[in-house]
Queue: 2 jobs
Job 1
Amino acid sequence: MKNKKLVMIPGPTPVARSIQDQMGRETVAFGDPAFIEDFKEVIKDLKEIFKTSGEAFVVAGTGTLAMEMGIANVAKEGDNVLVVSNGFFGDRYKELCERKGLNVDVISAEWGTTVTPEEIDNKLKEKVYKAVTVTHVDTSTGVCAPVAEIGEVVKKYEDTVLIVDGVCATAAEPEYLDEMGIDVLITGSQKALGVPPGLALVFAGKKALERRKSLGTIRDYYVDFEKWIPIMNDPSKYFGTPPVNLIWALKEALKIIKEEGVENRYERHRKVARAMQAALEELGFKILAEKEHRAVTLSNVLYMDGIEDAEFRKVLAEEGVVVAGGLGPYAGKMFRLGHMGNIDSHYLVSTIAAIERTLYRLGKTDVIGKGVSTLMKGLME
Ligand code: PMP
């Protein structure tokens, strides 16, 4: 009999049964009165959970579309923007902004570390930047940027809008727009929210909405805030067809988040990450990210000598756990393990146990159970 395969990649994450069930419901007309009510509730909940007095947008697309939407509404061709890059997805924002004809400056951190708020402050003193982009958790490195402190810095600059890429952080790391000086938060459905892939979510605070107004007609069409604001405030209106089942799935995901309590959810992610990272280190692996900047959503785990990436991940999959490979310079040198969203201790214990069985099969350990023991102690503290 084959093991069930746990999807422990950094998104899509395991989808809870009740969320999955929403995907199988009979699709209704987007003008269906009950669906309109559901959509309204989703928007209201999103604004409350992520604390914005501005707007929330939910459109069909992925995180990359949300990145486009974030920048397209706050900067126009020729504007200066500052991209803060802690890895692959920061670099993606650079490329995306350059394609839009923006004047892009970049501050990069060595992979595994983060750009500091002081470095950003110093850069912002040099010239007027219309926007700064920061990746909250760069999935390529497992580094979490100090977004609250960066928010404090960017707030001082009246002409600068702070865009936070929360794709690998939202619903696992605190992100409160009004309180943290985040002007635009962009994210996707498939990671810590625990919804299948296919939704781009964008939040815009007052400063960002004023900026959008000041730009007049923008080049981008599908991602234009002005096109979507009437729909998000009254989903009986039409601009683009809403992905009905995914919006139901998101509604169920938000119900789960509210039941857990958002602060409890953040705390759970912290505890799980610390326990999992301690267990991985106990097994002899190294984590790429510096300890003080480690993400709670995933671990970027460096192989010890003599482990071959493809073989490790193949054996691990046979043992029932799917993880992702490294990106960029770390391709072949690490695996990326997601531990975010709606996962309980069954997923976590099974995952570390499968990793131990894999090391055993590869002849890298003859003691089994050290990782499971460390993980369980961490989870029960
Ligand atoms: N930003 C970050 C931090 C991500 O992790 C990802 C996806 N891994 C993206 C953006 C792009 O999202 P998508 O793959 O949904 O387009």
Job 2
Amino acid sequence: MQLQVSQGDIAQSKADAVIVNLFEGVTDPAGGTGAVDKALGGLISDELKNGKRFKGKLGETLVLPTYGKIPPRYVIVVGLGKAEDMKSLQLRRAAAASVRACMSLKIKSAASLLHGAGIGGYHVKDAARLLSEGALLGAYQFTLRKGKKAEEENGEAGADSGKAELETLTIVEHSADKVAEIEAGLRWGRVIAENVNLARTWVNDSPNNVTPTFLKKQAELIQGLSCKVLDFEQIRKLGMGAFELVAQGSEQPPFLIHLAYKPKGTPTKKIALVGKGITFDSGGLSLKTAAGMETMKMDMAGAAAVIVAMRAIAELKDLDIEVHGFVPTCENMPSGRSSKPGDIVTAMNGKTIEVNNTDAEGRLILCEALTYAQKETNPDEVLDLATLTGACIVALGKAAAGIMGTSDDLLDRVRKSGEAAGEKLWPLPLYDEYKQALKSDVADLINSGAKGEAGSSAGGMFLKEFIDKDRAWAHLDIAGPAWMTSDTPEVPKGASGFGVRTLLYYLYNLG
Ligand code: BES
Ligand code: ZN
Ligand code: ZN
């Protein structure tokens, strides 16, 4: 979908539809919506006063044919919800809902007002960014494997937004002096959303295509970053016994991918991002059930989020922070070579781990990547994203990811970034009591503690054993929201791309 801005009168647009907006409960539209209503001879206000269909609730849409009163065939009124609730979520969702309405009308072009500009303190550039984010997120469909041979190669990392049927969305603005800022906002939103959509596609795509080698290739294709990849031999040589143990059961070679972005001037800060890249989690010999395995291609959602966030940074360029992205990636498979419950390994930091459950594999690859990331880059802050525990879904459902870590200040900033990004993060504790869950009779640590007791915190606690003293670290357990089972206008069923926006909002300090 092409997003553009043009100066003029929206009612005179040549597009197939015009998109206007309304706060909940308003029956007398003003501003741009009022002007379109007037041009339509009161068609909208008549429906609002006499009809029962539309209340202006957030994301609600009303489609009215214009019967030739203005050039566009349809007017789409989108609800912004209550004026006092106005937040970034509202603007993103309204844009997504209006684009979905265009898609169900099967139209090719639409002209839209810039929702929320000047309301709730939103600057036009931010409003444009949110509209563009919402429109492109809303247009996403996973169509890559429809009507194609499953084995067809993917080629270069395309920033496609699925097969959006709406080809052009034009923001129509009255005053010429706002056009440049709107354009800048649209570009930001486009880079953010296209990368979220790319992560969605990787997570939605089949695990026979999205292998560790696929992720490595995609990382290497990114322009503007340096990329170093460690292979199995190097992983072994570095003493990453825990990573090796998970990887050894699969026919697919594992990798530790390291992407780096360096700003032009002296960096103001250094940040390391780590993403869990299990491209398929069968559970290993501690085999999952058939139902439990069905969606386990999504176990690389953390990796996808980190790689595409790095890709977005490279595209946006103007970040003055040095950012490193680390992705340990392999499959977790049962085989004659795979790890057995009871195996003991030594991690790169010298700690020994008893693996009593081969399905708690995420922490085994992440702990090594966390050690490596800190050793290689000595970052001011480390964030990891992982679909780590089913327990996190039990605790928080699909609504939020769990967040835990070592620095309240960091956790606070990441949570605020998540909120602005439309991604909820809820704090879970790392109490010392949970250390009990890490106790092994035969090694320094055990990889899976008592079942049914604070599983997400136990996972976090395990990772904390690999975090240097005084290091600011945040662990995001994205097991729930990484994979959705119901739709919202901006997040379809399946892969959500969760985490990409939180990372970008956090790095760029976006509101
Ligand atoms: N990848 C899973 C966690 C998961 C489960 C993510 C469901 C998304 C949906 C992880 O590797 C796992 O299997 N964790 C175990 C840990 C347990 C053995 C300590 C779990 O959650 O059961
Ligand atoms: Zn597992
Ligand atoms: Zn897993």
